[in-house]
Design brief:
single chain; alpha/beta; Rossmann fold; Dihydrodipicolinate Reductase, domain 2; 2 domains; eight-stranded mixed sheet; 11 helices; about 35% helix
C-alpha cells in the first residue's frame, strides 16, 4: 500500500481524501492543516488531522504527500519545503511562473520525486497540446475554459485585502470557439478567447473601487482578460454560486498536404476540485513508482510514463487498453 499524506483540507484536499479512499493500492496516513486539529470523521473513516509543522516528524510514515493548497500563496512556499522531505504532487496552475517554479523545486528535491502542475490545465490539457502539436505540426492549437468556476482565480481574489469570499467564472467566447474549429487558423489573444466574471463578498468598510481595480489588474490572472466584478452578499454567493462545475476543451486544427484535420479533447466536470484531486492521486502513484527507480527531481506530466498512473500493471494495461 502506498502511504499518502495530504496538506490542506480545502476543496481539493477534501476531494483527495475521497480519491485516496477509492484507490485499492493506497492508504491515507494523515491530513496536515491550518484548521482545527484532532481526529476527524471524513465520511469514510477517521483520520488524524495534524498541524502542518508536525509533518517533518513523519518522513518515514508517508510515501507521497499531496499538496492541496492554492497556487497564489500556498504552493510557492509549501512545495519547496515538503519536496525536500517527501515525494510530492501538486496542482500549481500559474502557467507563466511554472518554469521558475520547477527550477526552485528541482533544487531541493535531491532524493525525492516532485511532480508539479498536475490537474487538467496544466496537466491533462498540457499533454494533449504536446501530443496534438507533435502529430500535426502544421496547425494551430487553441484552449478554451468554462463556463465554470476556476479555483485558482477564485482563491487569488480571496487573497485581496478586504475580500471575505469570492467565486470566479471563466466564460469562453463562443464565436472564437467556432472560428477555431473551422480550420481558419485565427490568431486569438486571451481576451478574444475568454472573459472572466467575478462575484465578490467584501468587508463592510472595504473600498470596493480599489478592490475591483486590484482584481482587474492582477497579472497572470485577470489583466489579460475582459473582467467584470460584481459585489454580492454572503447569502447570494452561497445560494447562487456554490457549485464547483467547470470544463473546457483543447483543440488543434491543421493540414497534411491539402487535407484538413481537427483534433479535440474536452471535459465537462460537475466538480472541478474532485476531478483535480483524482488526477493528483493518480500522479501520486506515479511519484511512488518513479521514486523506487531513483528518478528524482522536479517532474511534469510530460516526464511521467502514462502506464505509471494506473492501478493495473503494464501487461494488463496493454492487454485491456492498447
Amino acid at each position: 500500500m502506498i502511504k499518502i499524506g495530504i496538506v490542506g483540507y480545502g476543496n481539493i484536499g477534501k476531494g483527495a481524501v475521497r480519491a485516496v479512499e477509492a484507490a485499492s493500492d493506497m492508504e491515507l496516513v494523515a491530513v496536515f492543516t491550518r484548521r482545527k486539529q484532532g481526529l476527524f470523521d471524513c465520511g469514510f473513516d477517521k483520520y488524524p488531522f495534524l498541524a502542518i509543522e508536525e509533518a517533518k516528524n513523519m518522513i518515514d510514515d508517508i510515501d507521497v504527500m499531496l499538496l492541496c493548497g492554492g497556487s497564489a500563496a500556498d504552493l510557492p512556499e509549501q512545495t519547496p519545503y515538503f519536496a525536500s522531505m517527501f515525494n510530492t504532487v501538486d496542482s500549481y496552475d500559474n502557467h507563466a511562473e511554472i518554469p521558475g517554479y520547477i527550477t526552485s523545486i528541482d533544487a531541493v528535491a535531491k532524493d525525492k520525486v516532485a511532480i508539479v502542475s498536475t490537474g487538467w490545465d496544466p496537466g491533462l490539457f498540457s499533454m494533449m497540446r504536446l501530443l496534438y502539436e507533435s502529430v500535426l505540426p502544421d496547425g494551430s492549437t487553441y484552449t478554451f475554459y468554462g463556463r465554470g468556476v476556476s479555483q485558482g482565480h477564485s482563491n487569488a481574489i480571496r487573497k485581496v485585502a478586504g475580500v471575505i469570499d469570492a467565486v470566479q467564472y471563466t466564460v469562453p467566447i463562443e464565436s472564437a470557439v467556432n472560428e477555431a474549429r473551422s480550420g481558419a487558423a485565427p490568431v486569438l489573444e486571451a481576451r478574444q478567447r475568454m472573459m472572466r466574471e467575478c462575484y465578490v463578498v467584501v468587508e463592510p468598510a472595504a473600498e470596493k473601487d480599489a478592490i475591483e481595480s486590484t482584481i482587474k489588474t492582477m497579472p497572470h490572472y485577470f489583466s489579460d482578460y475582459d473582467t467584470t466584478v460584481t459585489f454580492v452578499d454572503e447569502h447570494e454567493l452561497r445560494e447562487k454560486h456554490s457549485k464547483m462545475s467547470h470544463g473546457g476543451l483543447v483543440l488543434r486544427s491543421g493540414n497534411t498536404d491539402y487535407n484538413k484535420h481537427l483534433m479535440e479533447f474536452s471535459l465537462n466536470l460537475d466538480s472541478n476540485p474532485q476531478f483535480t484531486a483524482n488526477i493528483m492521486v493518480a500522479y501520486a502513484r506515479a511519484a511512488y513508482r518513479m521514486s523506487k527507480e531513483g528518478a528524482f527531481g522536479a517532474k511534469t506530466v510530460f516526464d511521467v510514463p502514462p502506464v505509471y498512473l494506473s492501478e493495473t500493471d503494464r501487461d494488463e494495461s496493454i492487454k485491456n487498453l492498447l
